[in-house]
Amino acid sequence: MTFLQLCASKRASSSVGESGEAGLGDKEMFTFWVRIFIAFLFLEDVFLELMKWTYCRLLSFCILKRRRETEACAKGLEKLESSPPAYFS
Length: 89
Fold this sequence. Notes:
By secondary structure, the chain is mostly helical. 76% of the residues lie in helices and 0% in strands. The protein starts with a helix and ends in a 7-residue tail after the last helix.
């Protein structure tokens, strides 16, 4: 059952409000919005944690890639210094 179906069934089965109209009463409406607010806070926290984790992974990947490029460049320079190509002699 989706969230919207749950809300629709809740409205259909709810008691009559203070104004006499069919729908959610004040207490039910308050509880409904409190639950939505708590769910939003939870989802926001999860989203922020996911963003921090993604940023840290991306940053560590970039650092590792840069380190590998630097090491490869240094090895290439050492190789050139130890045995220069034939066209330099």
